[in-house]
Each structure stands twice: as structure tokens, then as C-alpha cells.
Amino acid sequence: MLVVTTAEIHGYEITETIGQVFGITVRSRGVLGNMGAGLKSIIGGEIKQYTKMLEGARAHAVERLVENAKAMGADAVVMMRFDSGEVAQSMQEVVAYGTAVKIARRA
């Protein structure tokens, strides 16, 4: 399935707009991970534990987006975006959302 951040897909025509589609996941670091990240925040620099966690969360959110789009009968998702926020002090929500569409190759 094609998932793009643009409104159009080069070489394809959107033949039907199915509707909004999303994938969501909520992740948390364990206590030890949070302690390590807290120490790293004191001295500065990238907090690799959180970077890895958020990369995984984004990938999982896109997987769920694709599953939902397929269930709706879509061939592609256009205008895909991410949103994220803190659910609780140590939990991060990541949402991938876009528009599920049917597409056909241009002649």
C-alpha cells in the first residue's frame, strides 16, 4: 500500500476518496529507562532511549494506519501526518493519520 504525505501520487489518479484513516499507539519507557533518560537530560544531548521508543511508535502507528486503510478497501493513503502527545507523565501517544483513497495508474 502506498502511504504518502502529499495530496497526489505521481503517476496515479485518485478515483475515490474513502475517508479519514488513522493508526494509534501509546508507549512508555520502563522505570530504569526513565531514570537513565533523566540523568541524560541533566548533562544534555540526545536521549537515545526516547528516540528509539518514538521511532518504534511511529512505525507501529503507520502499520496500524495501513491495516485500517486495507480494511476500508483503500489502495493508498494520502496526506499522511503524525501527531503525538503525552498521555501521562511517562506515556507518549503517537497517531498516524491521513485520507484513505482508491487509485488507478494514469495512462
Q: In words, what does this structure look like?
A:
It is a single chain. The relative contact order is 0.34. Strand 3 and strand 4 form a beta hairpin. It contains two helices and four strands; from the N terminus they run ββααββ. Helices cover 35% and strands 44% of the residues. The radius of gyration is 17 Å and the shape is elongated. The mean pLDDT is 88. It has one domain (2-105): 2-Layer Sandwich (Translation Initiation Factor IF3), CATH 3.30.110.70. It starts with a strand and ends with a strand. The protein has helices spanning 31-43, 48-71, and strands at 2-3, 12-28, 76-88, 91-105. With 107 residues, the protein is an alpha+beta fold.
Please provide a brief summary of the model:
By secondary structure, the protein is an alpha+beta fold.
Secondary-structure map with pairings?
Blueprint: E1 2-3, E2 12-28, H1 31-43, H2 48-71, E3 76-88, E4 91-105
Parallel strand pairs: 1-3
Antiparallel strand pairs: 2-4, 3-4
Q: What's the CATH topology name?
A: Translation Initiation Factor IF3
The biggest sheet, with number of strands, parallel, antiparallel or mixed sense and barrel status, is:
4 strands, mixed
Per DSSP, what share of the residues sits in E-state strands of 2 or more residues? 35-45%
Written as H for each helix and E for each strand, in order along the chain, the element string is: EEHHEE
Q: For the residues shown, what is the average pLDDT?
A: 88
**Gyration radius, in Å:** 17 Å
The CATH architecture comes to 2-Layer Sandwich
Spatial order of the strands in the main sheet? 1-3-4-2
Which secondary-structure class do the elements indicate? alpha+beta
Overall structural domain count: 1
Give the total of beta strands: 4
**End-to-end Cα distance:** 20 Å
Per CATH, the superfamily is Hypothetical protein apc22750. Chain B
